[in-house]
Each structure stands twice: as structure tokens, then as C-alpha cells.
Amino acid sequence: MPALCVSTGLASLNDSFWDFYWESHLAFLQGQGKGFAIQSASQILRGSTKPARILELGCGEGQILGSLLQAHPEKIQVSSSMGVDRDDDALGKARRDYPGLQFLSGSFTDARYLSTLGKFDLILLVNALHHAFSDAYDEELGQIDEQAGKQNVAQTFAAICTYLNPGGYLLLFDGVEANTDAQQWIEFRFRHPAGRQRFEQFTREYLPFRIQSQPGSTADSVCLRQRDFTRYITKLIFVGKPLWERERRESYQYFNESEFCAMFDQNELSIVHNEIISVDYERWQDEIELITAGIEFPPEHILLVGQRC
User: Fold this and answer.
1) I need a surface site. Which of 155, 194, 219, 230 has the fewest CB within 10 A?
2) What is the rounded CA–CA span in Å between residue 135 and residue 133?
3) What is the biggest distance separating any 2 CA atoms in the chain, rounded to whole angstroms?
């Protein structure tokens, strides 16, 4: 049976060490909730009795792994810890900013490539695993093949888990689907004309799925199905911004909470921490007003930590 998803094991995220370190060193990473992932990894390292060999997959500019090294140099096997990404520009910055660590060019969805890296005490998947789902974009369908995308995720995750040492931890932070009917229609209205413009740009340019809207009951309202609404609202902060060209090609959501927990259980990872995190509610409320009765904004992120027994 799937593991029961409850928060256990790790200390409270609101601890005095990290409050100070976050404010003095890492406040610039607050966006998209990365601080929760860094903080959780910090707690794992502080509870370790020996230096850990760490692998961050989809490391980008290395800020997460680099931040952990700066906070806990004595808790990390620096020379053998590494980050992997397929963005060479981002890796160049990571190497300049954190010269003590290895940053390698490669795809973590390639099982043969992973097999060359060895085994690790802590594996980080922060805003990364959804790339395995988004890679299932089908030109003929004109959108992601959802079944193939989910299979990609499951296969990639299973391969990654084989490189975790006994007793080691895997930390996953990513988008999460709502535990509701994906086909339910949601009506909302825009609070200002700029909000309508951003919505129209999203519906024109978002690639992973065809976004189909319907007119609402008023001139300033529209309707989206739950699946599309979740993608719209969680991409809102990127629309029209420099990162939009990349973000419009990716689906941040692929599994709901139960599916994530089942995947951890299937790979013999005992869940020691499970948390649903949303950081952009106020931004969403400034942009739109929900009209459909009984509807709330969807969850944004999931943070799961599993331990290999």
C-alpha cells in the first residue's frame, strides 16, 4: 500500500539557525519557495553524523547546493558532491560562484549518464522532475502526451533512487496537481485590464497543453477547467517576464499528492516529511477574484523527503 503522507522526522522549518542564515545570506532565493527546500536539506545535514555526498539534479546556477555548502562546509563531502544540468550557461555561472563543487553538463533523465556518477547520501530534485514530464511533448498531438509524460517521471525517478545510499535521503520539491476534478469549470474575473492581458498572453503562448477558455457570466470574467486554471495561476508570475520563454514550454504539474507518495513507496523510500506549500496566494488575489462557489486557489508546491531504509 502507498505510504501514509504525514510530516514526521524532520525538525520544524521555523528554527533559529535558519531564520538568521536565511535573512543574512539567502533572502534573494525566496521566490518560488526554494527556501523551504534549502531549509529542509539543511536540517538533514545538521542531523548527520558524517559529511554527506550530495547530488543536485537540475541544479541550474548552483544556488541551492552552493548555499548548503556555504552554510555547512563541515557537513558536505565537497570534492565529491556535484550538480548536474543541461543548461551550459547556468553551469558556467555555478562554476564561477561555487568553485569548490563539481557542476556537470548532462541530463538526469538519461539513466546511462546517471550510472556514471556513483552513489550519494542526499539527492536533491528541486523544481526539476517536471522536466521529465514536459519532455513528453508530442508534435502530432500539439501538447504533452500525459500518459507518456507520467511514465517518463516514474522511470526517471526509479533510476535516480538506485543511486541513493542506504540510509540516504531524497528531497523532492516540485509542482503539485490539485486533488479535485481536473475537468471542473472555474469562473473568475480580472481585477484590472493588465490581468486580462496577461491571461490572453498565457492562453496564446503556453505550449504543454491547449488552453480552452469560455466566456464568464460577466464581461470581465472567464472560465477555465481546473487543470488549465492550475497551470495559468502558477505560471502567472512569469508571463511577460524574461523567464516566460522557458516557462511557457514546461508543465509544472504532473502528479497529485497521492501519486507522489505512491511513487516514493514504490521505490522503497520512507516518507519522513511531506508538506504542501503555496507562496503566491496574495499575488493571485491581487490579479483575479474567484467567482465559482466553493472553489479555492490550488496548491502550488509539494516538498517530500524520503529515506532509503
Assistant:
1) 219
2) 5
3) 62
Higher pLDDT residue, 13 or 20? 20
Q: Which CATH number fits domain 16-177+253-279+299-308: 1.10.10.10, 3.90.550.10, 3.40.50.150, 3.50.50.60?
A: 3.40.50.150
Look at strands 120-126 and 54-57 and give their pairing: parallel
- Which of left, alpha, beta for 268 (phi over 0: left; psi -120 to 50: alpha)? left
All structural domains of the chain with their residue ranges: 16-177+253-279+299-308
Reported as type and span, the H/E element at residue 189 is: strand 185-190
Packing angle of the helix pair 63-71, 88-97 (nearest 10 deg): 20
pLDDT at 14 over 50: no
Nearest alpha carbon to residue 55 among 124, 128, 111 = 124
pLDDT at position 24 is 57
Q: Is there a contact between 178 and 302 (Cβ–Cβ < 8 Å)?
A: no
Burial, 83: exposed, middle or buried (Cβ in 10 Å; 0-12, 13-18, 19+)?
A: buried
As a whole-number percent, the residues of the chain with pLDDT over 90 amount to: 85
Indicate the pLDDT class of residue 21, thresholds 50, 70 and 90.
low
Place of cell 538568521: 20
User: How confident is the model over 165-196, as pLDDT tens digits?
Assistant: 999 999 999 999 999 999 999 999 999 999 99
Q: Which of 296, 108, 133, 294 has its CA nearest to residue 208?
A: 133
